[in-house]
Amino acid sequence: MKRSRFWIIGAVVAAGGGAVFLAGQMRGGPATSYESLAVDRGPIVSRISASGAVSARTTVLVGSQVSGRLSEMFVDFNSEVKKGQLLARIDPRLFEAGVEQSRANLMAARAQLARARAQSDLATRDLERKRVLAERRLIATVDLDTSGSQADVAAAEVQAASGSVAQASANLRQAEINLAMTDIVSPIDGVVISRDVDVGQTVAASLQAPTLFTLAADLRQMQVDTDVAESDVARIESGKTAEFTVDAYPGRTFQGTIREIRNAPKTTQNVVTYNAVIDVDNPDLALKPGMTASVSFVLASRDNVLRLPNAALRYRPSSGPPGPKGPAVKKGPLRTASGWCGSKASRAPTRSE
């Protein structure tokens, strides 16, 4: 009986000690404080973010349709060009020789045509004489038939010679076109963005036209190709406003208008995005092709409304034992809509260190 009382008293003492120890640990943790912020009035904006790249609205790749060695270069990077302006020239000597050869072949074909016509005329007159003699029964019928066959053959040779002349004319025209293509000219008014060849380099255009220059039509009219997630693409539409920044000008915000949202999907690592094209005016030429843009699409905005930070509407307990820890309230311009609130001050719990 005494032994049982001893065990009961020991259990009570151990429980009391544990409670005292736990209370001491709770009192030793950091205290919880609250930061109060007043609800104010001002504009609120709801938006989604995406990334994109700046490019010219019209970009043309200028290539060569003939092969040869580049003999002259007349423009360089950032050169302004006009439509029809000479950009470069491929060595034309082989093509000039081809034109001369084609012209000589045409002359030979024309001479062959004249000879065939003369032979046809002779065969036709001989046939007429044979017909007169045959009517008088002065020649055999077989001689008349032979003359008729010879006249038909001569007429066919005239047609063949005419075809040879047409073929030679076409070959000459092709040779002249190839010679003209040795002059690389600008197809548009614009600016040379890149130059991919140098003087003396051999251009091979056997399979596809190699790119020699990249031209932008007008760098004062730019566009931003933006990848918008499929979960957000239904929330934007053409004609809406978009804002973006670039790393070159961190303190400057550029404005643009959504021109179109293309239906072609783009899948990268099972993430589907759609290209939203934004038109941007670039009067001071600050934007360069290829710049990375951080884009914000404005979905809705309200002016002169009650607002407070999103952090004041959320509560996140701390993972440790001391007590609750609230999110810190970030001061500064508000960028997202937080909801409708009363006029009283909001209290966001924060943890004091």
Could you explain how this protein is built, in words?
It holds the Pfam family HH_MFP_RND. Belongs to the membrane fusion protein (MFP) (TC 8.A.1) family. Residues 106-174 form the Multidrug resistance protein MdtA-like alpha-helical hairpin domain. Keywords: Coiled coil. The chain is an alpha+beta fold and 353 residues long. It has three domains: 30-57 and 218-353, Efflux pump adaptor protein, beta barrel domain (Elongation Factor Tu (Ef-tu), domain 3, Beta Barrel), CATH 2.40.30; 59-89 and 182-215, OB fold (Dihydrolipoamide Acetyltransferase, E2P); 92-179, Helix Hairpins (Orthogonal Bundle). It has three helices and 16 strands. It has helices spanning 2-28, 93-135, 141-180; strands at residues 32-37, 40-56, 59-63, 68-73, 80-81, 86-90, 183-185, 190-195, 202-203, 211-216, 221-229, 241-246, 249-268, 271-281, 292-307, 346-351. The strands form four sheets. The protein has a six-stranded antiparallel barrel with strand order 2-11-14-13-12-15. A four-stranded antiparallel sheet has the order 3-10-8-5, with no helix packed on it.
